[in-house]
């Protein structure tokens, strides 16, 4: 599919404005300097013993406040608990989304479940990626399996032994998803970026999860379809498993989605892409290695007559120029902020042929229907991936 690049006048600077990315004051509150009070006391010429006492009290407040912040950071008390449900290895944007997820300190990642196809093989890719970036604290759940065939990123993880993963691997990913939600003392956001067999199966087994979770997904097409043009399309994540999508879209939980209207036009090119390509950190290295394996397998499948050298030339040309469409990264963003997108609450019905139609009587879904500043989102994505 082709991609569209939209430039806008407002840009985030590298390492820059979280406020522009929809995080209010950028995550930093204006905290008055407590020593200003001490300076004021000196100007008032208070007795020396009063000034000394005020100084000790001020130091104690600053120290205890700093410790409280440190304790909060280490415990993850203020973080958003999330489950990431992914059909990684089918399209490469899931791997970009996974990279963004692990690079976002806003999240407490409770579980990653693999979705669609050979989900056990996909779990190897997830496990090797998490090991490469130092996040083996994250549990992995193997989702509903449709076949035992291959996927486009298998070459990257072919020699990886899933039993060597230092974290937890659940053979029944659906039950792990249910247990994680039901045992949590806070509502969990389920970030789903593929078709929905896992989530639908979880709702079937335990309908009460809808009362303890919120759904954030990359699904559907509201007014625009693939390539950013009208009319709407039957988007893959919905069309591939329609009945499951219908179950999820009618469950009694809060739903937020990025349809093709917004996620279908995200792509990194030129300077932005080059910053990710050349960063060479554990995260970007694992990301680009997967991109290479995925793209190479696609070339091999479509052009069986090419020599190895010709295949590598094509792969190098693509990998040196741009990303593909990064649909799934938008769902990860919406789980932490909606500031860069125009959000509409719409009645959405999943039709039997895989469309997501606007209907007043249907369940209300919060939809990211337009970008306020696509360029700022791209800059935010680059900044997160390269930090």
Structural overview:
With 387 residues, the protein is an alpha/beta fold. It has two domains: 35-74, no CATH class; 81-267 and 324-386, Inosine-uridine Nucleoside N-ribohydrolase, Chain A, CATH 3.90.245.10. The protein is built from 15 helices and ten strands. Strand 1 (80-86), helix 3 (93-102) and strand 2 form a beta-alpha-beta unit. Helix 6 (173-182) crosses helix 7 (197-205). The longest helix is centred in the N-terminal third of the chain and has 28 residues, at 48-75. The two termini are 30 Å apart. Residues 1-20 and 24-76 have low confidence and may be disordered.
The tally of strands reads 10
Q: Write out the strand line-up for the largest beta sheet, numbering strands in chain order.
A: 4-3-2-1-5-6-7-10-8-9
**Structural class category:** alpha/beta
Which CATH first-tier class of the largest domain would you pick?
Alpha Beta
In short:
With 387 residues, this protein is of the alpha/beta class. The chain has 2 domains: 35-74, no CATH class; 81-267 and 324-386, Ribonucleoside hydrolase-like (Inosine-uridine Nucleoside N-ribohydrolase, Chain A, Alpha-Beta Complex), CATH 3.90.245.
């Amino acid at each position: 599919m082709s991609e569209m690049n939209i430039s806008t006048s407002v840009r985030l600077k590298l390492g820059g404005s979280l406020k522009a990315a929809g995080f209010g004051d950028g995550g930093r509150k204006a905290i008055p300097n407590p020593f200003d009070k001490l300076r004021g006391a000196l100007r008032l010429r208070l007795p020396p013993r009063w000034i000394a006492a005020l100084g000790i009290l001020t130091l104690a407040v600053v120290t205890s406040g700093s410790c409280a912040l440190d304790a909060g950071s280490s415990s993850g008390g203020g973080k958003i608990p999330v489950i990431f449900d992914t059909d990684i290895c089918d399209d490469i944007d899931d791997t970009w989304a996974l990279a963004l997820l692990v690079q976002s300190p806003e999240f407490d990642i409770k579980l990653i479940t693999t979705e669609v196809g050979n989900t056990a093989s996909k779990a190897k890719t997830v496990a090797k990626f998490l090991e490469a970036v130092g996040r083996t604290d994250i549990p992995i759940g193997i989702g509903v399996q449709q076949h035992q065939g291959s996927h486009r990123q298998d070459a990257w993880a072919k020699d990886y032994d899933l039993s060597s993963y230092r974290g937890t691997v659940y053979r029944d990913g659906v039950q792990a998803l249910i247990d994680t939600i039901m045992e949590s003392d806070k509502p969990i956001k389920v970030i789903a970026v593929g078709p929905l067999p896992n989530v639908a199966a979880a709702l079937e087994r335990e309908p009460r999860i809808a009362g303890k979770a919120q759904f954030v997904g990359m699904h559907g097409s509201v007014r625009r379809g693939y390539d950013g043009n009208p009319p709407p399309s039957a988007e893959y994540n919905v069309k591939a498993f329609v009945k499951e999508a219908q179950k999820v879209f009618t469950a009694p939980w809060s739903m937020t989605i990025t349809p093709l209207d917004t996620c279908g036009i995200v792509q990194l090119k030129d300077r932005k892409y080059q910053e990710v390509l050349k960063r060479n950190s554990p995260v970007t290295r694992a990301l680009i290695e997967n991109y290479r394996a995925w793209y190479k397998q696609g070339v091999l499948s479509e052009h069986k007559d090419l020599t190895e050298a010709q295949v590598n030339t094509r792969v190098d040309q693509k990998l040196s120029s741009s990303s593909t469409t990064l649909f799934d990264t938008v769902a990860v963003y919406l789980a932490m902020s909606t500031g860069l997108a125009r959000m509409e609450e719409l009645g959405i019905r999943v039709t039997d042929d895989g469309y997501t139609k606007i209907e007043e009587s249907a369940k209300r879904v919060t939809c990211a229907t337009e970008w306020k500043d696509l360029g700022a989102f791209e800059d935010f994505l680059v900044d997160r991936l390269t930090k």
